Amino acid sequence: MKLYKINSIFSCLLFFTIVGCKETKTQEKTSRVDALPYYAEATFTPNWLDGDDENLKSFHTIPSFNLTNQLGETVSEKTFENKIYVADFFFTTCSGICPKMTANMKVLQDEFLDDDEILLLSHSVTPETDSVPTLKQYAENKGIINSKWHLVTGDRKQIYDLGRQSYFAEEDLGLDKTDEDFLHTENFVLIDQNRHIRGIYNGLNKTAVQQLIADVKTLKKEID
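Above: the chain's sequence. Below: its structure in token form.
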């Protein structure tokens, strides 16, 4: 009778161990496709192109820019040369969506901490108040690693033009806006090693962030 109870207990433990392992495995997301599409405008209509497609020579890319990070260093498109990076837009005094976005960007930082091919870029949408010392203090408070994640300030018009006309980060389609209209978006934008947009994700959503991680890994295969 005792042996039967021991065997029953062992069987139950084995069952829950197997089920637990299966659940752990299914939690890790994979890309929905073997290769990611390319995006060229604000509707984010996917363009399915091969990496050697001639159309990519004239396809939309993130243009040249010149900004300053939390260490007072110049950050430009050359900083991300041959790198994959994730871009977003925030401001340090934001008490609404920004703290959650920063926390989820930190998930990305931790996931790719030892991968030099992956970087993060957060643009301040209030550059007039987010000075270099302010960004530096924010970085220290949030556990941001300077070599992995650039918080940038600079010319307001340049940042707003990048956000709306280059990254298409804002979802207010069809509305004409200037840098006088506040830019506020929860989106994370995935950029490949050739400055092409390869994905957009809700930076407040944990599932979307996990999908982003999976898509970065898919994108890395293009480099490897």
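Helices lie at 2-27, 98-111, 132-142, 156-166, 206-223.
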